[in-house]
């Protein structure tokens, strides 16, 4: 799948990974890029960097009517919807119920709303693409933030569900699983001393958002279902796709790799 001449929506497009995706899709020749974010000024700034082929929309992705409205773009029907906006909490078992529900709304339900908004018209037009930003935290035994890890795992499960049900109708879903990217989210997490962010920082493997955008463009061109910017995460997924015994062995080996030596610092 090439982005050239496609109409693309990117939620969370004002900052970090979403901003890098919006800029990269424009550079790849997208015919229209909708930069959607809660942060209206930030979205306008990114759309301004792109120029005529972009528009900014303020959206709260936890609102279904607002996400549904993103399907009506000034550039025509959506070919690629990147459901990328996400939030992180900062708690373990002590996470307040409000944190569970707000993370569930933004990190999971927003993907459901996006699929509901565009999948029927994509099927009617012969196909389309969804790219859902999840996280390595939804794949591995991630230390720290319980609602974040659980909602990201749910987001991966939802993407797989959509893929299973709609691939034969031409709708392809890719899951982006980053693991430590230099963005406002990571900086905020480190500042607030979140365990997940501290663990990522201690790993010493932090990518630039533009590296992730490159992995996405290559992943979409190869029509890969899972897009892993980090080789360790890709290796884990490769093991997972093998038989169950090997998968369990692979998982413990992967967790070992993460805990020693990369997470040698107590967290
Ligand atoms: P970021 O904070 O730079 O960007 C997130 C953007 O989402 C912001 O512009 C924010 O305004 C927007 N947003 C938040 N809530 C919103 C809402 N309700 N409606 C609309 N927009 C909203 O962070 P980022 O690191 O670029 O995060 C992008 C995605 O990548 C998230 O889903 C995040 O969970 C995921 N991710 C990030 C990392 C990392 O290390 N940075 C690792 C794994 C996964």
UniProtKB/TrEMBL annotation:
<dbReference type="InterPro" id="IPR020904">
    <property type="entry name" value="Sc_DH/Rdtase_CS"/>
</dbReference>
<dbReference type="GO" id="GO:0016491">
    <property type="term" value="F:oxidoreductase activity"/>
</dbReference>
<dbReference type="Pfam" id="PF00106">
    <property type="entry name" value="adh_short"/>
</dbReference>
<keyword id="KW-0560">Oxidoreductase</keyword>
<protein>
    <submittedName>
        <fullName>SDR family NAD(P)-dependent oxidoreductase</fullName>
    </submittedName>
</protein>
<dbReference type="InterPro" id="IPR002347">
    <property type="entry name" value="SDR_fam"/>
</dbReference>
<dbReference type="InterPro" id="IPR036291">
    <property type="entry name" value="NAD(P)-bd_dom_sf"/>
</dbReference>
<comment type="similarity">
    <text>Belongs to the short-chain dehydrogenases/reductases (SDR) family.</text>
</comment>
């Amino acid at each position: 799948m090439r982005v050239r001449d496609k109409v693309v929506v990117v939620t969370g497009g004002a900052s970090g990974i979403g901003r890098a995706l919006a800029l990269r899709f424009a550079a790849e020749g997208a015919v229209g890029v909708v930069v959607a974010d809660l942060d209206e000024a930030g979205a306008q700034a990114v759309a301004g960097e792109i120029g005529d082929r972009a528009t900014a929309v303020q959206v709260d992705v936890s609102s279904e009517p607002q996400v549904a409205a993103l399907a009506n773009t000034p550039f025509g029907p959506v070919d690629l919807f990147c459901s990328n906006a996400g939030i992180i909490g900062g708690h373990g078992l002590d996470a307040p119920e409000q944190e569970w529900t707000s993370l569930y709304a933004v990190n999971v339900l927003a993907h459901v709303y996006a699929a509901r908004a565009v999948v029927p018209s994509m099927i009617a037009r012969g196909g389309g693409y969804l790219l859902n930003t999840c996280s390595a935290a939804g794949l591995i035994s991630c230390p720290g933030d319980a609602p974040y890890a659980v909602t990201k795992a749910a987001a991966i499960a939802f993407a797989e569900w959509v893929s299973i049900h709609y691939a034969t109708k031409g709708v392809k879903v890719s899951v982006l699983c980053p693991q430590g990217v230099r963005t406002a989210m990571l900086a905020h997490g480190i500042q607030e001393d979140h365990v997940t962010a501290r663990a990522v920082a201690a790993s010493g493997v932090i990518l630039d958002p533009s590296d992730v955008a490159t992995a996405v463009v290559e992943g979409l061109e190869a029509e890969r279902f899972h897009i892993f910017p980090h080789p360790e995460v890709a290796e884990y997924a490769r093991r997972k796709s093998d038989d169950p015994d090997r998968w369990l062995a692979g998982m413990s080996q992967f967790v070992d790799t993460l805990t020693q030596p990369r997470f040698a610092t107590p967290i």
